[in-house]
Amino acid sequence: MDPTIFSNFIVAVGAVVPIFILISIGLFIKKMQFLTPTELNHVNRMVFRVFFAIMMFYNIYHADFSIPISPTLLIFAGAGVIAMCVLFTGLVMLIEPSNKRRGAMSQAIWRSNFVLLGIPVVGNIFGDDNVLVPTVLISVVIPIYNVLAVFILETFRGGKFKLWPILRGVLTNPMIDGLIVGFIFQGLGIKLPAPVVKPLAQIAALTSPIALIVLGASFTVSSLVAEKKQLIFCVVSRLILVPAIMLTAAAFCGFRGIEFVSLIAVFATPCAVASYAMAQQMGSDGPLAGNCVIITSALSCITIFGWIFASKMLGMF
Length: 317
Prior knowledge:
This protein is mostly helical. The chain contains 13 helices and no strands.
């Protein structure tokens, strides 16, 4: 094998295998019934409401802002999410007559599990000290996800789009709160004492591994819904079509290095776990949304590896 190909292969494997192992540990925990469903829900809520907020804060507080972050990257990521939402929602409306399914299908395609899987992908390739770019991208992408998700799901269930409740939901999101506080500390030059910073750093380091383990332990292999064609369309669109479109556009726009890999994290990761809960709560097709999360998460170790390996071979990073 060509040494360059082998080296690129090792980089791709190094990015994906740690994620696969952590998810597998979660599956083992579930199989051994070490946690009851109630306990798992409590751990999951703790991770997303406490650990993620601390991780977001620490990543910004500890970041070296002498490293420039291109505003073009933030604009590209935000505009790309909106463009994929418009494009694939339109396609879903053409092929699917049921409004109940339309919302779940649309959200499953353009809303990725960027926070849970994106930062580990970037960290595995560039090191955990170099996750500033994806962390700042979160402050752009997550609010857009929240606004678009409510708008789409409300529209397809015949509800009204109310701006203030959406903004309030964004501002009370623990991840966004952690980012805001982190930027405040950075902007004001507030320095915390070392005994305080150390446990924050430890929690930040634990957050992604624990979240991935919880994701694996949360898998429920329910019977596949009857709408197999809709499910296949969502899975192929989420893992193949969306990243193909957006990563090609990113390459032509000149994004390289950690910026390009961060865009892989935004556009090539599986369906967001939150999309299932939102679909259930807002009158959409919950079983279809849940199966989209499960199947895309299971297949993403293969597809993310493929996108990273191909990008490395093409010299994108």
